[in-house]
Amino acid sequence: MKNLNPLALLILLATQSAAAQAGDLNGAWSIDATACGSMFTKENNKLAFKKDADLYAGGLIVQGKQISGTFQKCTVKSMHEDGPNVRVVASCSDGVSISDVTFDLKLSGEDKVTLSSKEPVPVEMVYARCPM
């Protein structure tokens, strides 16, 4: 995967760390908490993206080791602690190709996580949990 995208970033949300249980990270996440209502809905008691969710801030839905974005789906393959971060490797598909993606996750406050990648270009984004 050449570019860091919102779905790949959420892969990190599905991991466990000493500070949080995996279940604590399930849910809807956005880089802009004010856009949550425009991006997510609940259908049959399950989180889903609204029709035009991709027009708003980056968002992701975490359900266990499955992570969904508006255009990709990822499954966590492995994870390990690397100092204060959790290093995650996930397999992601956009419906055309499948690739492995590696990212770091760091809890950065209540209902906030910082997702980062060093390659191909250093990127760091803060995601906030959407109240659903």
Describe what you observe in this structure.
By secondary structure, the protein is mainly beta. It has a single domain, classed as Lipocalin (Beta Barrel). Helices cover 7% and strands 48% of the residues. The strands form two sheets. The protein has an eight-stranded antiparallel barrel. Strands 2-3 form a two-stranded antiparallel ribbon. A hairpin with a 4-residue loop joins strand 7 and strand 8. The longest helix is centred in the N-terminal third of the chain and has 5 residues. The chain is globular. The protein starts with 5 loop residues before the first helix and ends with a strand. The N terminus is likely disordered.
Strand-residue proportion: over 45%
Strand order of the largest sheet: 1-4-5-6-7-8-9-10
Mean pLDDT: 79
CATH domain class: Mainly Beta
The structure class reads mainly beta
Share in helix: under 10%
In CATH terms, what is the architecture?
A: Beta Barrel
- Measured between the Cα atoms of the first and last residue, the distance is 30 Å
Shape: globular
Break the fold down into its secondary structure elements and pairings:
Layout lengths: L5 H5 L16 E4 L5 H4 E4 L2 E4 L9 E5 L2 E3 L4 E10 L2 E9 L4 E12 L2 E6 L5 E7 L3
Quick recap:
The protein is mainly beta and 132 residues long.
Q: Any descriptors?
A:
single chain; 132 residues; mainly beta; eight-stranded antiparallel β-barrel; 2 helices
